[in-house]
C-alpha cells in the first residue's frame, strides 16, 4: 500500500512564520509553498532544505513545487530555494501570483540587501531566473505534471490569485488550502472546493479558535476610529502589505470619504501599491462577483481620493491617512513613518493584520511602549495602537465549513499556534469523526492509504452480470466470476471463456460420473420417471427435464438409469456432471443416495 | 453511440452525441444567413428603402405585395429578420444532459434551445465565451429591438408560394421553422444556465463520461472538447486555429519583448546565414546543420540546454515570421524562374542537372532541381499547434474550418490596412462591418502599429456598437486566455491590447449608437467599425445609406460569415468601393490534413461540405478533407451511428480483494488470477468487493427446509485448462495411498483403473472423466489430485 507523508519543513507546523510542507503521495514528492520567516534576519529566515534529501539533487527528488499565493511567508524563500540551493523542476502558481510575486520579492530584497546590507541573499537576477521556472495554473484547470501526478487549483479568496491545490496521483489525493477565507469581502470572493473527498486535507489554522464578529461591525469600527483621529487633526498610519488588505481598506475608505465628503488626504506609501492596483484592474476576473459585474461602468480600483505618497508628506501638518508597506512594521517606509509619528498621542497606528514575533508590530501590539531601535535608541510610543483583524483567514467556523465541503478522510492542521490548534483538532475529531493531526516543524506524519485498483472489465462480462444482478438479494449476493489478465501494467478482467480464448489455450473438461445404487424392482423407465418427479418436486428453482432418450437432466447434469448387471432389483443411476457444476452434482448424488420416496400410488 | 445532426451549417454546428448513458449537445450555432433574404432595418427613416416597388407573382396575384419588395433585381422579404434554428424535432431536447460550447459564435441559438424546448440540463463554456457571447447576443437583440417593425411576414413561407418565388428565396430551407430574435430576458435566462469552466478542467458527467475543454487557438476562450470514458475517446474540434493572433499559446519570457528579439535575430543573423539561400541544394547533411543552427532561438529564449524541450516547442514559441525553409523556398522559386527563362547557358544546364556524362555508382546525389521540386510539392506554413490531447481519439468530429480556404489571413490584414490608408488619404471614409468582438481586436492592433507610419494619426476611428465599451473593457481582463506575449504585458502591468492606448490618445472613440454623442463628435474622413456584418440591421445600415453614393468611400468586409455580394444586394446600385478581405484564421485543409496525420483518429466525422470541393471551385480537389478511412459526412437532420464498439469499462478492485488474488504467470509477462467477487454499481461506478465470508450453515439450524440446502448453481466455478501427464499422475496417486493401479492406452489417451476402488479415470488431451461409485470422499480426493495438474481460469 502506498503512503501519504506530509512533512512540514522547518516551518508551517505550529507557527505562523513561514510555510513549507513536503508531501509524498504514492511516490511523488511535492513541495507546498516555500515561505520565509519575517521575524528573523539570519539563517533561520529560510526553511532548512537539507531535510528534504541528504544526498542527491532536489530536482531529482521533487516532482514539483506549488505556491499557493504571493505572501512572502508562502513564497519568500523561492529564489533562495531554486537558485541558491538549486532546483530546476517546475513551480506552479496562478497567473496573478506569478505577476505579483516577483515584485514583492524584489521589494523585500531591496529592503534586506540595500537598506540593511545583508549578504548571502538572492539577487534580482535570481528572482528573474526563478520566475522563469514558473508555470501558470488557471482555476479548475487540471495540470498533468507527469503521467501520474496531476494538480488542480481552487479559488481561495485570501488575496488576489490565492488558490487551494488538489494533488492527485491515481486514486490518492491531498488538498492543500494555503491561506483561505470562507467569507467574501469587499473585493474577493469566498473560497470554494467541490466534494473531492481527498485522503488528506492540509488546512491552515491561523484563526483556529477565533470566530470573528461580523464583518460589518469591524468595518464600522475601523471607519469610526479613522474618522475620529482625522477629526481631531491626527494622522493615521496603516501598515499594510502592498496587495490584499490594502485594496480592501482602500475601497472602504474611498467610499466612506465620498459619502462623508471628507477632505483629509489619503496616501499610498510607495509606487508599489499604486502598481498593485493596476494588477487588480487587469486581474478583475479573480475578484468577487460584484466587482466583476460592474467593472465596465466603474472600475473599483480607480480611486479618486487616494493619492501617491511622497516621503516629504510625512512632515506635513494636519490630518492624513497613510497606507505604508510593509505590514508588520519590521522595515521600510512604514517603520520610518512610524518613528516620525510615534511620539504624538493624537496619531494612531492601525495594524490590520497578523504580526509575527520579533517584529516591531508584534511588540507594540503586545503592549510594549518603549522600543529599542538600532543604535541603542529608545523610541517611546505615545500614539494610539489599534489592532483590527482584517487579514482574510478562515476562522474556526470557516475551517469547519471547508472540511464539510471537501469531506476528507484525514485532516492535518498547519500554520497556526499549537494551543489553538489543539482545540480545533478536538472539535474536528468530534464533529467529523476523522483523524486530525498537527505535526511540529520537521515532524513527519505518515498516513497509510489503501487505494483500490482500477482495471478494465470486458463490457460483455459486465453487462451479463448487471443483467443478472439487477435483482437485489441481500442475503445471497451474486458472485462475479472472471479472470484478471495482467500484461505489463495493463489489467483486464474478462470472462474465463474469453481469457482462455485470448491466450490460445484449450479448455480442459473435468467430468465426474457417479454410480448411485437404488433398490427398485420396477422397470428402468419407471425408475427414471420416479427420479424425475422426485427431483422436480424438490428442485423447484432448477430446470429439470425428462428427455425422450430416457435420461433426466437437471440444468446440465445428466442422470441415466441402468439395471444392475447382477441384481435386477437394483438399478444403477449414473449421475454425470462437469467440474463447473460440482456443487449441484454432489448434492444430487447425496440426495439420490437417500433413496426415492415411496411412490404415491 | 449516435450523432444527431441538427444544423447543416459547417461553421455554426449543432450536434447531439449520445455516448454511454449521456446525451451531449455540441455547440448551438444559429444560422444567420437567413437574414440576407430580408430588407435592412434602417435606423433613420430611409426614403429609398421605404419606397421600393412591391414584387408580385407572375400570375398577377398581388397578395404578396406587402411582404415582398424588389430591389435591383433581387426580391426581399419586408419583415422582421428571422433566423434559421437548429432542428429541434429530431430528438427530445428534455433528454439532453449538457451543452458544450466551443466558442462565442457557436452559442447564438442557445436561448431558443434552453428556453423553449424543455431543456433542463447544464451548459458548459469558458468565461470569455460566456461574456463575449453575452455581448454578441445583447448587440443582436438591441439592433433588432431598436427598430420596431410591425410586420411579420408569413404568407411567402407557404410551400406552394415559396416554390414560385425567385431564387434564393425559392431554395431557402426549413423556412417554416425560421424564428424572430429572442428577447434580452430570454438571453439572461439562457446564460444563467451556463457553468464556467477552464481549459483542461476535467468535468465528470454522471460518473460515466468526462469532458474537457482544450484551447483551440481561434478566439478568446475558444475550446475544443474531448469527451471520454476510460476506454473511449471522442474529440470535438470546432473552430480551431494554428495562427494564434491573440489567443493563448504558452511560452516563456524575458526583458526585451520576444518580438523585438526575433526581429533583431532575423535582421542580423539570418540575413547573413541565409545568403544565397535560393541556390542551395539541400541534402540531409545540410538540412541537419540548418536545423541545428535554427536552434540558436534557444539561446534567445534563455532556454538552458539542460532543459528538456522539444525543438518544435522552441520554434512554436519564437514563431519567426516564416521558417528558414519557407524563406529558402521563397527565394528559391524566383531564382528557378530566373534560371529557366534564360537562353541556353551553362548555368542553366548545371542548375537543372542536365550535365552530360556518366554519373558515379550509387544513388544519384540530390540536385538543386530536386530541391525545387520538393518545394513545389510541400506546404510552406510549418508552425505546429499543440494537439497532444486530441491524440488517440476513436472519433474526431471536425467542424468550423475556414470559410475562405483560399485566402491567407496574414495577407488579408495587409490588404485591409493598405486599402484603408488609400481611401482615407483620398479623403474618403472607410466602413468596416464587423462583430463587436474578435477580429476587430486584431484589426485595431494592426492599425495601432500602422497608423503613424501611414500618416493616419489624425484620422478618427469610431467603434459603434451598443456593447463597444464592454467589448473593449472585457478584452483587457482575460489575460489568462491570451497568448503569452500578451500575458507578459499584464505582468508589467500593462493592458494586453494596444487599443487601450488608442482610446487614451483619443484616436479610437466608441459610442453605443449613432444617436447621441456621436453626432456631435463625428468628423470626416473617418474609419467606422460597426455591426452587423449581414448589413441587415445595426448602425452599419445607416452608414451604407449615407456613404453609398460616393465612390470616394470604401466598405471593407472582413467577416467571412456572409457573402458580401448578397449582403450588399439591397443597397445596389452602389457607388462606394467594396473591398473583400475576409479574415478567417480557422484551419484550412492543408492544416487539417496535418492535424489528422498528427492526432491519428480512428474515424473522422465532418459536415458533408468538407467531403467535396466547394461548388464554385469544383476542380480544387485539395479543398476537401482527405483521410483514411474516408471521413463520414453528415447533413442537417441526419442521424449517424458512429462506428465504434465499446469493449471495456473501468471497474475498481477493492484493496482487500486485490490482496487475496493469487496471480500466476502463464506466459512470460502475462499473469492470470481468477477473481470471484461481488459487484457493486453506484452512479455508473463499478466496484468489486471480496465475497462475503461463506457462512457455513451450522447443522440443525438451517435444516428446516430442504431447499435451503440446494446449492446456488449460479455460483460459477472457474474453467480449467492444461493437460495431465499420465505417468506423473499415477505416481501422485500412488503417493496418496492408491494401489493396484492399471493404465490402459486408448486411441485418444489413457484410462487409469483403480481396481480396488472400482474407479475409472479417462484421461485425454483436453478432458478428464472420473467415473466412480457414490463415494463423495473418494471423488473429492481424486478431484483435488487432478486439479493439481490443471490451471484454473
Automatic annotation (TrEMBL), chain A:
Q: What is its main location?
A: cytoplasm
Q: GO CC terms on record?
A: cytosol; INTAC complex; integrator complex; nucleoplasm
State whether keyword Membrane applies: no
**Highest taxon of source:** Eukaryota
Q: Which Pfam families match?
A: Beta-Casp, IntS11_C, Lactamase_B_6, RMMBL
| Recorded family membership | Belongs to the metallo-beta-lactamase superfamily. RNA-metabolizing metallo-beta-lactamase-like family. INTS11 subfamily.
Q: How does it assemble?
A: Component of the Integrator complex, composed of core subunits INTS1, INTS2, INTS3, INTS4, INTS5, INTS6, INTS7, INTS8, INTS9/RC74, INTS10, INTS11/CPSF3L, INTS12, INTS13, INTS14 and INTS15. The core complex associates with protein phosphatase 2A subunits PPP2CA and PPP2R1A, to form the Integrator-PP2A (INTAC) complex. INTS11 is part of the RNA endonuclease subcomplex, composed of INTS4, INTS9, INTS11 and inositol hexakisphosphate (InsP6). Interacts with WDR73; interaction is required for the assembly of the RNA endonuclease subcomplex in the cytoplasm.
- Can you name this protein? Integrator complex subunit 11
